[in-house]
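Chain A, query sequence.
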Amino acid sequence: MATGSRVLVGLTMILIISGELIVPGQGTCQGDIEGLMKECAVYVQRPGPKVNPSAACCRVIKSSDITCACGRITPSVQKMIDMTKVVLVTSFCGKPLAHGTKCGSKSVIS
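Chain A, predicted structure.
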């Protein structure tokens, strides 16, 4: 894993632990978020090229409540994640986000 990817995953884990990734009062899908960040962060990070995700990332996506995870993305986390890449990765893994799904502060328009 590249140094930049390790930093992103480390920062994200700090945000998860500190509660910054969870929107207060909305419950949690913590296990989903932790798995997504561990296996998929490198594919959705900003900046960086668009790369097809790994089989491990796709397994996590297929078993996760992506809508729940999308609803928990805070503005501070969204600064590190390219939402276009999120849409591409979920589609590649066979679990596309539905038109109109709100992910962070963005709505899916594809």
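The longest helix spans residues 3-18. Confidence is low (pLDDT under 50) at residues 3-8, 13-27.
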